[in-house]
Design brief:
heterodimer, A: alpha/beta, Rossmann fold, B: alpha/beta, Pyruvate-ferredoxin Oxidoreductase, domain 3, 3 domains, seven-stranded mixed β-sheet, six-stranded mixed β-sheet, 21 helices, 24 strands, globular, binds iron/sulfur cluster, magnesium ion binding (chain A), 2-oxoglutarate ferredoxin oxidoreductase subunit beta (chain A), oxidoreductase (chain A), thiamine pyrophosphate binding (chain A)
Chain lengths: 364, 666
């Protein structure tokens, strides 16, 4: 709600009035929902087999557990395959323009703290054309959840390399291999001091749901990188991690409070290295006390950053789960506080404002 | 002390009304008081000398005294160009009078030059015989050399054509402050207040306002406040007792409509208009902006009005500024973004999104010299075509422009009205001259302002035959689409930049639908003409055959030029446009009435292009892009020429007085 509770009720704004009217018509907010309640009548138009389907299903089935009414959710997206997402969700939504979703969502979330605001974006949308908005949204900590579908390719424009593509990638625009060094989205977010950063795999329903749940509950900006298979232009990009034969070997599951031990039979682990870094070791070669116990709540982002640096471009040693989850005041709450504070002196008096300080009277 | 004593000739080269009254001053000096009907003063100094502050204070004193006035601040883009150089000169001009004035004056009657650079940069514009006040302390060999004076103009006789009074302003200030405890350098900084004191004496200005202002401004540094006040008083007393100034001037208050007045700049008025629009619509204001000259003051002003529910967001860039504003509009706020031309270029894609999503949004463009970074601190009107067409696709946007600093208030309210009622982005075109210029403003009664609540009307109930919500179902009259905000149950819908199907708003690639929607969006904007007043024509005789048409800040200079024309016995009509898209419905008819139509603009003919295209009228474009407003005398010459060639008989009327450069006709 946007009314200020200060003992001196402002006249209800048209926003409050509209919501009150809708409550009258529909009764109390409907928060007991099923996955199918979030579906729309729009035909889903991703390529058959696209990882986006799996993510959409996972999101639709987990949302009811949040207990948020559909009308209180807004999904803002940019441009790209993933940005079609809002059309398939029975919530409010805006399919905006390339890269700008975090900026649009910032204005919405800052002016309507009562809403649950989500951004759906991709690696090109968020990290290339919209890189600036992403890092600034993260540092401001506006309350919103950003789902970054990373397929390491441009899908909608039919297969050019993206800012997360590995060096040397041969694509339509890079016949001799790409020269760009890729971003690691998690490292980038942590560099921007994001208060919540997680990573999940499209096909891992359980892991994805768990990260999404924590992200949605987080007060502030949360960024979830979702590895998403584009079976048309970059098929198998995450196969190393998905293949039951190789996945466990190269995936480091992050569980708060648990030692970072992974691989078949827990053969590998993460230990501290000089200069504050981390490295992979063989579990039987180190003293158990050397093994790092995952702590997502560390104030200092350098630990989470070191974690994000364990993986290489070819995805070996990829941590999955929640890297960082810390509490910081969120932007819209602080903004609302300033408004309340200003109104403590009394609500604005337009006549007094228009008159300003120095006035003079012209008599008839 | 050197200098001539301007006892004899008051600075009114055009022979404006002047009456001399003698009075005696303390110390037995006989000082005379000369009554003038108007004066143009220009203060010029180094950008570190505080000329803008001094000018603003003099303006406030003058406004509260009851004169009508217009101001023209003129400063470099650099915060501090090298001291004492020509690029570092900052100036402030104001015209004040006992009658209504339309411009800050073409040229000054009085020039105050705080250093040789200021003299060199401005002297050419001071008409012969004008009063020149110089700070002699600053005319050192070093400062003279910096601007290429081989000899000191104060001593070499080169200033003989003017009434020159050279006064050691700096050392008199430090003398006055020798017991203040301030160091010499620090004390010197108060010389602008000494100068202000002197001018306040010369023109009988009230002083309490400035003393209150200084106390307020330096609340936390009482010793600085005290020093400035002491310097201000010393300057005043110096005027009162010195033999260098034997004359002081009185300019009676101007008759104005009864009411309460304040002095206001364009940026201030615009910001207050936006707050008022929020209050009158009941919607929270959300401003997303990125700092840019000359628009930043609107951001500063709005950020101070949180008690009105105004949220201001300083974004990471221009695009995020408008993006956040649009996001807020989606949530039911009145989204606003403020910028200048380069920022509008960056915002173009989001404006297109606002056109497509049909959400209200106010885009304020405080125009400056372009292209590219151009002339950040100078005025221009060259963004009109950008405002009209600077987007991909057919993306019509209403365009409106204020005509004076105070009018920025009404224009802002009108922009909000259109944005809300028609669910459209609206372009509000101010400019650097309006933004920084100031004038007395009749404070409106809040209750008398337009009621914008009917324009809001959020949809809360499904509007479709099958109980569904159709976000692109339109109001039959305005063609505005239904606006339902998040939080309203049962109204969930998705909007976006892809073409919308009529009624449902679903994605549609259907050719016929695209054709229909493109024409509908255009028709919606065209339809705004039904709610705007008829063309504003000022033609006192009613039978002028030549019309001058303008938009935006040229209103004052064009109006002053028309007064000159009429006083010469000729006839001319002044047409001034507030709404440029759509034009008032009767504009074509109005233009057709005249034999000739002249269109002065501070660009290369952008409105003229639109008028010619739309009405097939042979508009004669008169343009200038010098970063400064038009001089009314020059405009008058252009208009006279047009009248006399259209009707040779008119040429027998008196020539427009060429010497009345500073005439009471401005
Ligand atoms: S191009 Fe790739 S990412 Fe896009 S919809 Fe097809 S499979 Fe999915």
């Amino acid at each position: 709600m946007t009314t200020v509770e200060l003992g001196m009720p402002d006249a209800p704004t048209p926003i409050d009035a509209a919501i009150a009217r809708s409550l009258e018509q529909h009764g109390p907010k409907q928060t007991e929902l099923k996955g199918k309640d979030f579906k729309t009548d729009q035909e889903v138009r991703w390529c058959p087999g696209c990882g986006d389907y799996v993510i959409l299903n996972a999101v639709q089935s987990f949302l009811p557990s949040l207990g948020i009414a559909r009308e209180d959710m807004v999904i803002v997206s940019g441009i790209g395959c993933s940005s079609r997402f809002p059309y398939y969700m029975n919530t409010y939504g805006m399919h905006s323009i390339h890269g700008r979703a975090p900026a649009i969502a910032t204005g919405l979330a800052a002016s309507r703290p009562d809403l649950s605001v989500w951004v759906v974006t991709g690696d090109g949308d968020a990290l290339s054309i919209g890189g600036n908005h992403l890092i600034h949204a993260l540092r401001r900590n506006v309350n919103m959840t950003i789902l970054l579908f990373n397929n390491r390719i441009y899908g909608l424009t039919k297969g050019q390399y993206s800012p997360t593509s590995e060096v040397g990638k041969v694509t339509k625009s890079t016949p001799m291999g790409s020269l760009d060094h890729p971003f690691n989205p998690v490292s980038l977010a942590l560099g921007a001091d994001a208060t919540f950063v997680g990573r999940a795999m499209d096909s891992d329903r359980k892991g994805l749901t768990e990260v999404l749940r924590q992200a949605a509950e987080h007060q502030g900006t949360s960024l979830v990188e979702i590895y998403q298979n584009c079976n048309i232009f970059n098929d198998g990009a995450f196969e190393l991690l998905k293949d039951p034969a190789t996945g466990p070997m190269w995936t480091i599951p992050l569980e708060h409070g648990k030692p970072l031990v992974f691989g078949p039979d827990g053969a590998s682990c993460v230990v501290r290295e000089d200069f504050g870094g981390l490295r992979i070791a063989e579990t039987n070669q180190v003293d158990p006390s050397e093994i790092v116990v995952h702590d997502a709540t560390r104030e200092d982002p350098s630990y989470a950053f070191a974690l994000s640096r364990l993986s290489s471009q070819d995805l070996r040693y990829t941590p999955m789960g929640v890297f960082r989850k810390v509490r910081k005041p969120s932007y819209e709450a602080m903004m609302a506080e300033q408004l309340d504070e200003a109104r403590l002196q009394g609500p604005g008096d337009l006549d007094a404002l228009l008159a300003g300080g120095d006035t003079w009277e012209v008599k008839a | 002390m050197t200098g001539t004593n301007p006892t004899v000739a008051p600075p009114n080269p055009d022979g404006a009304l002047a009456t001399s009254v003698s009075s005696s001053a303390p110390g037995g000096l006989v000082k005379s008081v000369v009554e003038l009907d108007r004066v143009v003063i220009r203060l010029a100094g180094d950008s570190g000398d505080g000329m803008q502050l001094t000018g603003n204070r003099f303006t406030s004193e003058t406004a509260s005294f009851g004169n009508d006035l217009k101001t023209l601040p003129n400063f470099p883009a650099e915060i501090r160009a090298p001291t004492g150089t020509l690029p570092g000169v900052s100036s402030f001009q104001l015209q004040f009078a006992d009658h209504d004035v339309m411009t800050p004056g073409d040229a000054p009657d009085v020039l105050v030059a705080m250093n040789p650079a200021a003299l060199k940069a401005n002297l050419a514009e001071l008409p012969g015989g004008g009063l020149l006040i110089l700070d002699s302390d600053e005319f050192t060999p070093r400062n003279l050399a910096k601007v290429g004076y081989a000899t000191n103009p104060i001593e070499d006789g080169s200033l003989e054509g003017w009434q020159t009074v050279s006064v050691p302003l700096t050392s008199m200030t430090t003398d006055a402050l020798k017991d203040s405890g301030l160091g010499k350098k620090e004390a010197e900084r108060s010389k602008n207040m000494f100068t202000l004191g002197l001018l306040s004496w010369m023109y009988h200005r009230p002083t309490e306002g400035t003393i209150r202002f200084l106390e307020r401004q330096f609340r936390r540094k009482p010793e600085i406040a005290a020093a400035n006040i002491a310097a201000f008083r010393a300057g005043y007393n110096y005027g009162d007792t010195t033999e260098a100034f034997a004359v002081s001037y009185e300019i009676k208050p101007a008759p104005m409509k009864p009411g309460r007045y304040r002095n206001i700049s364009g940026n201030q008025a615009l910001a207050l208009g936006l707050v008022a629009a929020g209050q009158r619509s009941g919607l929270p204001i959300f401003l997303g902006a990125y700092p840019i000259t000359p628009a930043s003051d609107i951001l500063h002003e709005l950020s101070r009005h949180k008690s009105f529910g105004v949220r201001t967001f300083q974004a990471e860039d221009e695009i995020a500024g408008i993006g956040a504003a649009l996001g807020a509009s989606f949530g039911g706020a009145l989204g606003i973004t403020t910028t200048s031309g380069p920022g509008v270029a960056l915002k173009a894609e989001t404006i297109g999104l606002a056109v497509m999503t049909e959400l209200p949004l106010v885009i304020v463009d405080v125009q400056r010299g372009g292209p590219s970074t151009g002339l950040p601190t100078k005025t221009e009107q060259s963004d009109l075509l950008q405002a009209m067409f600077g987007r991909n696709g057919e993306a019509p946007v209403p365009v409106i422009a204020p005509r004076s600093p105070g009018d920025c208030f009404d224009a802002a309210v009108e922009a909000a009205r259109i944005a809300l009622a028609y669910r459209t982005p609206v372009m509000l075109l101010s400019d650097g001259y309006l933004a920084n210029g100031a004038e007395p403003w009749a404070i409106p009664d809040a209750d008398s302002l337009p009621d914008l609540t009917p324009a809001v009307a959020f949809a809360t109930e499904p509007n479709g035959e099958d109980g569904e919500f159709l976000p692109y179902l339109r109001d039959e009259e305005t063609l505005a689409r239904a606006w339902a905000i998040p939080g309203t149950a049962g109204m969930q819908h998705r909007i976006g930049g892809l073409e919308k199907a009529d009624r449902t708003g679903n994605i549609s690639y259907d050719p016929a639908n695209h054709d229909f929607m493109t024409r509908t969006r255009q028709a919606k904007i065209d339809g705004i003409a039904a709610t705007i007043p008829p063309t504003d024509v000022e033609d006192p005789d009613g039978d002028a055959r030549v019309a001058v048409i303008g938009w935006g800040s040229t209103y004052g200079p064009i109006g002053a030029a028309c007064r000159r024309i009429r006083s010469s016995g000729r006839k001319v009509a002044q047409i001034h446009l507030r709404h440029i898209n759509p034009f008032p419905a009767d504009l074509g008819e109005v233009l057709a009435r005249y034999d000739r139509v002249i269109c002065p603009e501070m660009n290369l003919g952008q409105l003229a292009l639109l008028l010619r295209a739309k009405y097939l009228v042979d508009v004669q474009s008169h343009t200038q892009v010098r970063g400064m407003p038009f001089r009314s005398a020059e405009l008058a010459a252009v208009i006279q020429d047009a009248i006399d060639t259209a009707d040779p008989a008119a040429a027998n009327s008196t020539a427009v007085n060429p010497t009345a450069v500073n005439g009471a006709l401005q």
